[in-house]
Amino acid sequence: MTEGREFFDQFWPEARAVSDPKGEIFSALGVSKASLREVFGPGVWVRAFQAMKKGYRQGRTIGNPWLLPGIFLVREGLIRWKWRFKHIGDHPDFKEIGSYR
Q: Which 3 state secondary structure label does DSSP give 26?
């Protein structure tokens, strides 16, 4: 949970993250296990190469590496915005969330 807090402190301090070790919430939101292609496919390698060119490196794996990420903006009990990752190297334009904040 420390890593999530560090991320939000940098990009959106008032946001809260959910840690769901049993996967119950993730499952209810439709977050699923990744296939081999979603973990090792061409899109992942392209993103990895782009990240390496910018100086980023793979760190220690935290959590379940086979669980595709999901981002959900929940307000007043309703999902206002969501992003379901196409592969582990996929990511949203976080500026898009601003219109839902």
A: helix
Q: Which domain range does residue 93 map to?
A: 2-100
- Which pair of tokens denotes residue 40? 């090792």
Strands (E), the chain: 70-75, 78-84
CA 39 to chain centre: 13
First to last CA, the chain: 22
User: Taking the model in full, what pTM does it have?
Assistant: 0.67
Total tally of structural domains belonging to the chain: 1
User: Which residue, 80, 92, 90, 84, is CA-closest to 30?
Assistant: 84
pLDDT digits (tens, 9 = 90+) for 24-33: 888 888 888 8
